[in-house]
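Hey L., structure's done. Input below.
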Amino acid sequence: MRRMGIGLQLYTLRSELGKDFEGTIRKVAELGYEGVEFAGYGGMQAEDLKALLDEVGLKAIGSHTGFQVLDENLDGEIKYLQTIGAKYAAFPWLPPEGRGEEQWPGYLKKLEGYGKRFLEAGIEFSYHNHEFEFEVMLGDLTVFEALYTYIPAQYLKVEMDIGWVQYSGLDPIALIQKYAGRLPLLHLKDFRKGEPGSGIDTVELGRGDLPLVPIIQAASDSEVEWLIVEQDTCANPPLEAVAESMDWIRKNYLDANKF
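Output:
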C-alpha cells in the first residue's frame, strides 16, 4: 500500500477554532496530523498563517471556498493559497435552495472558469460532494457524473467524501476506482446507519459502518495524495474525536504497513 498524507478538514473543529484559532492549529499538529484543509482562515494574514504552519510542521493542503469568495475575491484567494503553500482549492457545498436542476448548467460553466484560473496559478480545483449530487439529474447523468463528464479533468478534480457516497447508497470503493487518477483528495469519514430517511450520523473512524481499510487500499491504488479526516458533527468533544480518528489511522494504516 502507498503512503498517503494524513490531513484534517478543519471544519470538524469549527467551534474550537472560533475560540482559539492558533492554539487549535497547534493541537492538530500535536495529534500527528500532517496537513490541514481550511474552511476559513480565522482572520489571519496569509504570511502569519504560513509562519504558524511552518512552526508546527503542518502542510496547507488547500481550502474549501464557496461561490461568494470565488465570485468576489478569486484573485485574493489565489494569492492567499499561494502564500500558505497550498496546492488545492475545493468547492464545498450548496444550500438547498441552490440545488435545482435548472441551476446546474450555469454552475458547470462557472466551475470550469474557476478551474482555469486556479490552474493558471498552479492550484488544482476540485469539487467536494455531499448526497444531493447523486440525487439531481442532468439528462441521463447525475450531477456528480455531469461535473466530471462536462468539465475537463485539468479544470476540475474529485474531492470524494466517502461517507456521503455510502450514505447515498453507492459503493465508495467502486467510485474511487472509477475516478482513479482524477482523485487527489479523499475525505475519510465514518458514519452509523440510522432509520431510513434519517440524517447522516458521523462518528470517529472505526465506529461506523464503512469498510475503511479496503477504502484506504482503493485510495492507494487510485493515486490519492491525501486522506483527509472529516467529521461533520461530533457527539464527543471534537478534539477528542479527531484524536481517536488519528489513533485509528495510526493503528490500521500507518503502523499496519511498511512504507
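The chain has eleven helices and twelve strands. The chain has one domain: 5-254.

-- N.
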